[in-house]
């Protein structure tokens, strides 16, 4: 599915967005019809306007309470889902409504995951891009989000390490980027031992995917995405209820690939050198699986005591971050569906992010709100460093006690990111548990649009 605006058309039907409690615009010429239909402008409420000949002349669409607009991201997305098939245009952009976010929300609301379901070709309401917006840029952002959603929604039977590599190769080919993949025993030869250890029990070989886009002497951006294509928990086996969503444990990799497509599609990649590293593994159970109590030696040389094989994401990321930091990128970003603790703290909608540089963090926080892609800064709290230092190795992959789980995971990763100019870590969820405007239930990208919006300030 490709998110696209409709071509401008003289017969496009007008939509008047209306804040709850505000009067209907005079040019809608609606008379008492909205009142008789019970239209109040509540979020997602629509009112079709008759043309007097049995047809539709346009529609009113409710934006909800303007004073609580932050509660409803992409309210206009509901129009894409509920209005009749046809071509529509915004007849009015009321004060307080962001036309760009409204248009993007409309496109995001068109998303459907149709790979396994027949009979999903129903017509849809299409929007003419509002004047003054860059239609290609908005479409590129939506298309990149669709890629991320498709990758996350695909079950592990069709999105294992090999298929994730295939998707990365297809994207690299479309963008004219180079790609190298190191897999199986070659990971040991390349000194990527923890990626190999985590993935060696699976039938599909573990691998590291390495994509490079751009050359010259521009600023360097390295993106690392956790690609655990399915997580059984290893020998510390997850209960069934916890294993049900583990096809999404490669959500960091999916977001990294979507972010790369977004950078290229919007022109933000121009003048920058971009690298994407994805450790792609399946954490499985077999006789050769890594064990609780094992001590692994990382690429960096730091030893890690494995106190829980279900804390495997930070292990594969550690080797990838070390490799990335050896190039001393100006900015390094990691996306990972890393901890349940982040969900307990902030819920599914607001991923925490970690960054030691205040100016970078402030720019990201501000951009996240403007882009309707919320993030919340959490601290690399140095006082907790002792929690990740066990007795017999340099580091512990799963500190006991259960407190500050997202922070201790971020501190663990930071040990391996040293060498990068600045490091930003996002502990994302990658999943929309209940449908919301522009975000149907299922896989979802988090953080990429915020970082795209922040990029001019954090990597000029």
Characteristics of this structure?
460 residues; alpha/beta; Leucine Aminopeptidase, subunit E, domain 1; Aminopeptidase; 2 domains; five-stranded mixed β-sheet; 14 helices; elongated; aminopeptidase; Peptidase_M17_N_1; Leucyl aminopeptidase family protein
What's the topology here?
Elements: E1 13-19, H1 33-36, E2 46-50, E3 56-64, H2 77-82, E4 86-90, H3 99-108, E5 125-127, H4 135-153, H5 161-175, E6 178-183, H6 186-189, H7 193-199, E7 207-213, E8 220-225, E9 227-231, H8 240-243, H9 251-265, E10 273-283, E11 295-297, E12 303-305, H10 313-325, E13 331-336, H11 340-346, E14 352-355, H12 358-370, E15 376-378, E16 395-396, H13 405-417, E17 423-427, E18 431-432, E19 442-443, H14 448-458
Parallel strand pairs: 1-3, 1-4, 4-5, 8-10, 8-13, 9-10, 12-16, 13-17, 14-15
Antiparallel strand pairs: 2-3, 6-7, 7-10, 11-12, 14-17, 18-19
Helix pairs in contact: 3-4, 4-9, 7-10, 10-13, 12-14
